[in-house]
TrEMBL record:
InterPro entries: DEAD/DEAH_box_helicase_dom, DNA_helicase_ATP-dep_RecQ, Helicase_ATP-bd, Helicase_C-like, P-loop_NTPase, RecQ_Zn-bd, WH-like_DNA-bd_sf. Residues 588-629 are annotated as: Disordered. Residues 290-441 form the Helicase C-terminal domain. This is ATP-dependent DNA helicase. Keywords: Acetylation, ATP-binding, Coiled coil, DNA-binding, Helicase, Hydrolase, Isomerase, Metal-binding, Nucleotide-binding, Nucleus, Phosphoprotein, Zinc. The lineage of its organism: Eukaryota, Metazoa, Ecdysozoa, Arthropoda, Chelicerata. It comes from Ornithodoros turicata.
Length: 629
């Protein structure tokens, strides 16, 4: 009897649970419908906001602050004319509108918040990722008698107290304050000061330099930039001006969402730098030979001209600088392990042309504003096209001809991939860089332009400003069925796996060429007769196209990249064909008349000061192989 009562109670509870589950499902459906409606409304609001902002003429000169902007531009910055997009950006931020400004390195982004700060009431806060960059900008502004200051961990205590007091004093002589994102994220006292400034109407605007650092998809993500996501919620009426030289459409959308400024106008200047010539060269395998190769380029083409050589590691910056000095070129390393005084000394000597070359890691980057850099050479592969564009863009800021050279070697792919594979989209970004290097046909400028989402066909206007568009270079192509080659690689990998061996790229190459350990030689596989360089290009393209993949393993000292079959392996084993196009580059044969004219030009060029404009005699490495669509 008692059991029947309990059984009835259990039945009632199960019935109620079923009813609750049904109600939960109904509410979930209601929630999903509401979420969909909310998202649709957000999109419509964003679209309408963008349309309204786009209809506004931000270039017109009848804004109430126009005369003041012109006055300060001339008297403080000694500027008579503005560059494209500077006026719209200035007018937008002075109108209280949020804006993201994408402008090439050296295009004049800083002026777009420095000028408005003088015109506005209150103080403009500038977020900057590097203390050295802030120091350089504040020093430059103070030389112009501009009321700027900075707060960082290195700011003397008394000076920091004076600045903090000035933040809430309407009569204080500060119009622009630079701080790092770390300071903002970790100082509750500073945030309290901003709250007081906002309440008193003294928080004029927030400028975020290198705004791409907000995005986890970006090439230079900084965790402390995530804190900036609260700024729009805390200070809704403070306009945000985000500035960067490099951001794809995907990264821009991510930044807008993270900062809470969806629908803001994005001002994007054309990223092509017509005065820069881009070249890819094969990198000699031996370190001494690669340094000698760099030295030969500098002595032959850039004698007594200023330049930067970017290196993969701190050790390499030291070796390259020492090797260049042995070749009679004044060079010093620059990297993060050096103490601040030594780094400043190198920077200062180079800026004053007392030092020809800085051999540097990417630590020598943001804020480098030397106008007469005639060459930037990448001794090793850059980790992404975003990084490469920004680093190479330190050349030719005076708008005169300059040259950007990258030395490409297959082995450098895996040094980089082992360091970036933990980053979100790190490997994808690196492979885009590799594709750029081995592409022996398409205009380098077009590849960069398309990467950043620009539609214009730069190749039409390139002329000879990249090695692939050089009219003196002949390109021959040959389509080759490489299905058997790819299957051979799979046999070598399967054989190694059966013997509990993992193959690094070097070991795979050796096994394919019949070198190295005998146990890695698969039965029935003949050694390839192709050159080492061609084999490397086959492997690189197979990686890019998914026929091979990298598998990373951690040791106590480093991450190691091993090669395994890629996601396309099943299709190949199932009978799909694989075709690559082999491209060979060579100098076009000149007629007798052309040859005489060429000799004359070379003689004239060798006596010219602008040696950065001369063409390379070294052929590009792009005997590239890319998959045929």
């Amino acid at each position: 009897m008692a059991t029947d009562v309990l059984q009835q109670q259990l039945s009632d509870i199960e019935s109620k649970i079923l009813s609750a589950d049904t109600e939960i499902q109904r509410l979930r459906s209601v929630k999903q419908a509401l979420l969909k409606k909310r998202d649709e409304l957000k999109v419509r609001i964003t679209q309408q906001t963008q349309e309204e902002l786009a209809r506004t003429d931000w270039n017109k000169n009848d804004y109430p602050w126009h005369e003041q902007v012109r006055k300060y531009a001339k008297e403080t910055f000694h500027i008579n004319d503005f560059r494209p997009l500077q006026v719209p950006a200035i007018n937008m931020t002075l109108s209280g509108k949020d804006c993201i400004l994408i402008m090439p390195t050296g295009g004049g982004k800083s002026l777009c918040y420095q000028l408005p700060a003088l015109v506005s009431d209150g103080i403009t806060i500038v977020i900057s990722p590097l203390i050295s960059l802030m120091e350089d900008q504040v020093m430059a502004l103070k030389r112009l008698n501009y009321p700027a200051a900075m707060l960082s961990a290195t700011t003397p205590k008394e000076e920091a107290q004076t600045i903090n007091s000035a933040l809430t004093d309407p009569k204080a002589p500060i119009k622009l304050l630079y701080i790092t994102p770390e300071r903002l994220a970790k100082s509750k006292r500073f945030m309290a000061k901003l709250e007081k400034m906002y309440k008193d109407g003294q928080f004029a605007r927030l400028a975020i330099d290198e705004v791409h650092c907000c995005s986890q998809w970006g090439h230079d993500f900084r965790p402390d930039y995530k804190f900036l996501s609260i700024m729009k919620r805390q200070f809704p009426n403070v306009p945000i001006l985000g500035l960067t030289a490099t951001a794809t459409s995907h990264i821009v959308a991510d930044v807008q969402s993270m900062l809470g400024i969806e629908g803001c106008i994005v001002l994007r200047a054309p990223l092509d730098r017509p005065n820069l010539r881009y070249e890819i060269h094969p990198k000699p395998a031996a370190q001494k030979e690669s340094i000698k190769f760099v030295a030969d380029i500098i002595r032959r083409r850039f004698r007594d001209q200023s330049g930067i050589v970017y290196c993969f590691s701190i050790k390499e910056t030291e070796e390259v600088a020492a090797g260049l000095r042995e070749c009679g070129i004044s060079a010093c390393p620059y990297h993060a392990v050096m103490n601040a005084d030594d780094r400043s000394s190198v920077h200062r000597r180079w800026a004053k042309n007392k030092l020809q070359v800085v051999s540097a890691t990417v630590a020598f980057g943001m804020g480098i504003d030397k106008p007469d850099v005639r060459f930037v050479i990448h001794h090793s592969l850059s980790k992404s096209l975003d990084n490469y564009y920004q680093e190479s863009g330190r050349a030719g800021r005076d708008d005169k001809l300059a040259t950007c050279i990258l030395l490409y070697r297959f082995g450098d792919i895996f040094r980089q991939s082992s360091s970036v594979f933990t980053e979100r989209s790190g490997q994808e970004n690196l492979y885009a860089m590799v594709s750029y290097c081995i592409d022996g046909k398409r205009c380098r400028r077009t590849i960069l332009s398309e990467h950043f989402g620009e539609d214009s066909d730069i190749a039409v206007n390139c002329g000879s400003k990249c090695d692939n568009c050089d009219p003196d270079t002949a390109v021959t192509t040959k389509e080759v069925d490489v299905t058997d080659i790819v299957k051979t690689l799979y046999k070598i990998l399967d054989n190694a796996s059966a013997k509990d061996e993992r193959l690094t790229p070097l070991k795979l190459l050796d096994a394919w060429q019949g070198k190295g350990s005998k146990k890695l030689k698969a039965e029935g596989v003949k050694s390839t007769s192709m050159s080492r360089e061609r084999c490397e290009e086959v492997l690189a393209t197979a990686l890019l196209e998914g026929y091979l993949s990298e598998d990373f393993h951690c040791t106590p000292y480093a991450y190691i990249s091993y090669i395994v079959a890629g996601p396309m392996a099943e299709a190949v084993k199932g009978g799909n064909k694989v075709a690559f196009t082999f491209r060979t580059r060579s100098k076009r044969k000149l007629s007798a008349a052309e040859d005489n004219e060429s000799v004359k030009k070379q003689k004239t060029s060798s006596g010219s000061k602008e040696k950065g404009a001369t063409k390379a005699s070294q052929p590009s490495c792009s005997d590239g192989i890319v998959i045929i669509d």
